[in-house]
Write a structure and sequence with these properties.
56 residues; alpha+beta; Alpha-Beta Plaits; two-stranded antiparallel ribbon; two-stranded antiparallel sheet; 18% helix; globular; metal-binding
């Protein structure tokens, strides 16, 4: 099960910098997670200031 970034994303990039496999990229000012690459480690959720990454 992968994480997904919800609409609360403020586009700060903290999650992308924390992802150990580079599964997070920017798209139109928000960040998205490639579900096929996500390890479900939760590192992104732990660093996000608004709690946008959520487990699916």
């Amino acid at each position: 099960m992968a994480y997904k970034i919800n609409d609360d994303c403020i586009g700060c990039g903290a999650c992308a910098a924390e992802c150990p496999v580079g599964a997070i990229s920017e798209a139109d000012g928000k960040y998205v997670i490639d579900a096929s690459a996500c390890l479900d480690c939760g590192a992104c959720a732990g660093t996000c200031p608004v709690g946008a990454p959520q487990a699916e």
